[in-house]
Amino acid sequence: MTASSWPTPLAYVAHPLTTYGTPLEREALDLLGALLPDAVLVNPATRYRDTDHWLADWPRLVGTLSGLVVVADSDGTIGAGCLRELTDVWRLGVPVALLDARGQLRRLSGLRMVAETERTAQRLAFVTAGRHLDLAFAMTRCNPLNERNHP
Questions:
Q1: Over the stretch 80-117, which tens digit does the pLDDT of each residue have?
Q2: What pTM did the predictor assign?
Q3: What is the DSSP letter of 130?
Q4: Of these four, 56, 61, 103, 133, which has the most CB atoms within 10 Å of its CB?
C-alpha cells in the first residue's frame, strides 16, 4: 500500500475529563483542526457516553490511530484516563504530541506525578513539553494500515 492510498489519519485528542465542554477544550480542538488539517480528530468528550463506553471501545480504537495529542488541563495535569491512553499508544509505537500552552505541538518528554496528598483520578500527573514535533509528518509514517498491523 502506498502512502497516497492510505486512509485519512486519525488523531486522538486525549484530554482530562475536567476539560470536557470547556473553552480550553474548544480552543484546543479548533487549533488542532488548523494544525492537522488532513487528520480526523477523535474527541473522547463527544465519542463516549461514559467510562464503561470508553473501556469497551478504546481497545479497538487504539489500533486504528495514527497519532495522539495530549491537551493538559490549565494547571498542566492529566488524569488516569489520559495516562492509560498514553500507555497504550506508546506500546503500539503511535506518535504522541503535547499541545502546549502556546498552541505548539511538542514532544511529550515526561510525566511527573502529582503529590500523593493532592493526587486524584482526574489530576494524576503533570506533563512536560519537549522539542517541536511535526505530528502531521509523524502520522504519515505511522499509519495503522501499514506493515505494523498488516505484514
A1: 999 999 999 999 999 999 999 999 999 999 999 999 99
A2: 0.89
A3: E
A4: 133
**Which single residue is written with the C-alpha cell 511535526?**
134
Residues 22-68: tens digit of each pLDDT = 999 999 999 999 999 999 999 999 999 999 999 999 999 999 999 99
- Report the distance separating Cα 103 and Cα 2, nearest Å: 32
Cα four-point dihedral sign 88, 100, 24, 124: positive
Is residue 23 a contact partner of residue 53, using CB atoms and an 8 Å limit?
A: no
Tracing cell 468528550 back to the chain, one arrives at 45
Domains of the chain: 6-141 (3.40.50)
DSSP string, 84-128: HHHHHHHHHT--EEEE-TTS-EEEEEEEEEPPTTT-BTTB-EEEE
Q: Any residues with CB less than 8 A from the CB of 7 and at least 6 apart, and which?
A: 143, 145
C-alpha span between 121 and 18 (Å, rounded): 11
Measured CA distances, 87 to 6, 84, 118, 124 (Å)? 25, 5, 22, 14
- Beta-bridged to residue 105, according to DSSP, are 99
